[in-house]
Amino acid sequence: MSARHDAPPGTEQTPTAEVDTLVGHLARAAAVAPDDPAFTFADFTAESAGRRTVLTWSALDHRVRAMAGILTQAGAAGERVAIVAPQGLEYVIGFLGALRAGAIAVPLFPPNLPGHDERLASALDDARPACLLTTNSSRAAIADFCTGRRLPGSPRTIAVDGAELGKAAAGPADDAAPALVRPEDCAYLQYTSGATRTPSGVEVTHANVVANVQQGVAAFDIQRDRNQVVSWLPLFHDMGLVIAVATPVVGRIHSLITDPLAFLQQPVRWLRLLAEHPGAVTAAPNFAYDYCARRVQGEHRDGLALGQVSVMISGSEPIRPDTVSRFQQAFAANGVTPEMIRPSYGLAEATVFVSTSPTGQAPRVTAFDRELLGKGTARPVAGAAPGTFTELVSCGRPVGQEVVVVDAETRRRLPDGEVGEIWVRGPNVARGYWRSPGRSAETFGAVLADDPSDVAGDRHWLRTGDLGVLHDGCLYVTGRIKDLIIIDGTNHYPQDIEATVQEAHALIRYDHVAAFALTVHDEERLVIVAEHSRQISDPGAERDAVARAVRDAVVAGHGAAVHDFVLAPPGTVPRTSSGKVARSACRRRYLAGTWTDRVDLDRAGAGGAE
User: pTM, whole model, 2 decimals?
Assistant: First the structure.
């Protein structure tokens, strides 16, 4: 079966060619609302309350034109331009400047992001940018990184806050038309977070991003005279870029951004910013809502008036039912209502947004029979005994695009209630992977065997690699195909096991658990790596007790034996840039003996497929 929900009347039309790009929308905003605030950056490194720097639409457009002029003179048109600047207004200027110059922007990050140097090197090696845009404070680090990694080419490094741009911006506005780009041209390469594979550059066209913003604006009922964006999400990440940069430009609404570190250090900062900006639209992964509920306590909740927040998107699977309820209950007295929280599904290959829960409705949580779900059938249950069901949060319906659930082997669509691969089709679906035609055809060129138009090659689908089920017309995401753990013929979703493990013992760090499978003697075996609390002074003395609690909980809750359990030091379970546990990377570290002096290859099953 399929799910489809069209945009409201008037929003589904394709924009005219002159504004079918982000820079076209920026020019229009600067013309019709030049003095309105466009972007504000709250810098918590300078002041405890966050020093605000504001750019109006006209000021932003002026700087973007100047940046484009410098890039044009540098020969960047048609080339890749990597943005490797810290979070801030310079990042926005650099990204939009690259688009106006007719370049392909590559949103990345400076080398100081802990644990992600390999991803940065891989992306730069793959994109081969002609220019690197950064800030004066990061310029030396970028040069040292490129030299140390011996990256190919000799890209020119330009400081967005440097004298060159300052001189250009101080002069009269550049009235030259932006470089001629077509809607179908690639606007930027969105490198995946690397949760399950080496980072790949998704080719997002100008038409893709404008279409996806319009879908999101319709789905979340974002209105120019009522809403503004508040975000700490990294701008190099798909959700951060679209919600905090693309949506404000296309929707002509104010965007306040801050650094992710400001949130991680004091999550109450995010909530205070939301309270200060009526009609706030924000987005965050599941862990961020749980982090706030656990860390923002007592007096820090006093005075938080969150009743005027419009939308709080939870957009990183798995979205846990207990997190949704915990956050809402924790801040109910501050005005948070269930209807504000909008569980959503998306991925970089679809620009970002695919589906969300309906406006004005509380998140829908459904309990499914756990044993049947492991066999591929989602049957709702009520009043079942603990441990016999799995609760899933609905990600609602798509807007302006189609979603089907498919048997990946037969490529036939499945009826409601059957688990399969999620396929997506719509104007927001990217055109492929950078320099990877074979993999692009496999992922973006899927056809349904039971659809005549698909078989004829007239229409194609995006294979997401995610498993899900349609129930009562709503999409429920159950997990990643590559992460699925199959033991004795039963499917186990790692996020379910991880949730059980982190509740098994008080010394296990919440959201720092990885469950994955290894092949040992031709059989799938379960391995769990869990970080211990920072409060443990002697982990060795606690290891056996924690391991016993984990093994007992997993057997009781999932009927699966734990082949090996690792109690790991804090900070050693790898995560993606969006905060998800990187299970494949964790598996590689386990096999490499990261947490032991030597891995018993027979015990670990080193020959298992990746």
Answer: 0.89
